[in-house]
Amino acid sequence: MADQDRFAVLERIAAALERLAPPPAAPPSLEGADAFVYEAASGRLRPVARVAGVDLDLLCGIDHVAAILLGNTERFAAGLPANNALLWGARGMGKSSLVKAVHAEINAAKAGALTLIEIHREDIEALPRLLGAIAMSGRRCLLFCDDLSFDAGETSYKSLKAVLEGGLEGRPDNVLFYATSNRRHLMPRQAIENERRDNLHPGEAVEEKVSLSDRFGLWLGFHACDQATYLTMVERYAARFGLGGDPADLRREALEWATTRGHRSGRVAYQFIQDLAGRSGGATA
Predict the structure, then answer these.
(1) Residue 80 and residue 191 in one domain
(2) Range of the domain at 160
(3) How far apart are CA 273 and CA 51, in angstroms?
(4) Residue 155 belongs to a domain
């Protein structure tokens, strides 16, 4: 076969392969919504028409941390410097609810001021790709990862460290990162203790594990609530959703509900209100 014939065959093969190849994925769009969920497998930002959350004034017992987070987020939405935030502590005390409530509060004051993007914990390794896609969008983006933590032996936290601070490119100016966790250092205590016990230079090994949380400029702690705060939560929810009745009966039933759950929290209060609304034919939405 002559050389020119070979070239013609190769050109036809190359053209056929191009036709068979899938088209390049379109960059994720931030149009049409103020909240999205990042789907790492497809690189798509799925719009969320209605964010599940509660109003900021319904979150009781966390006034101080709520004011700090709201102020930090307002500065970011206005184009001013702001810190990444780690919301850590007791379960059910409003960590993720506060992030969503702050987003809603800011957008209520100025429509479209802030875009909320949720990235799942298992997709953290795709975070650099997401940042590259939204860096030039022109919108102020609040990235949110709920229940972020890493088990012993995991290394994906290293990519998050580089993105938050320390990498060559760093975090884009139009992006802020908020995470919630039950763990202050995002690592199980056992893993940190194992580093101290098993390594030749335990101090250096422990520093490597806990340095991720240092990338967050704000550490906001959430602690278990007392009985008075729990009852205030219940009463505010009941008033907001128009669930009347005798106040003494409401408090008694709420305390019995918390006893069956073994603890008091904002989540337990809301679950009690859901049950009460169902029994009385009311609504909580």
Answers:
(1) yes
(2) 35-222
(3) 20
(4) yes
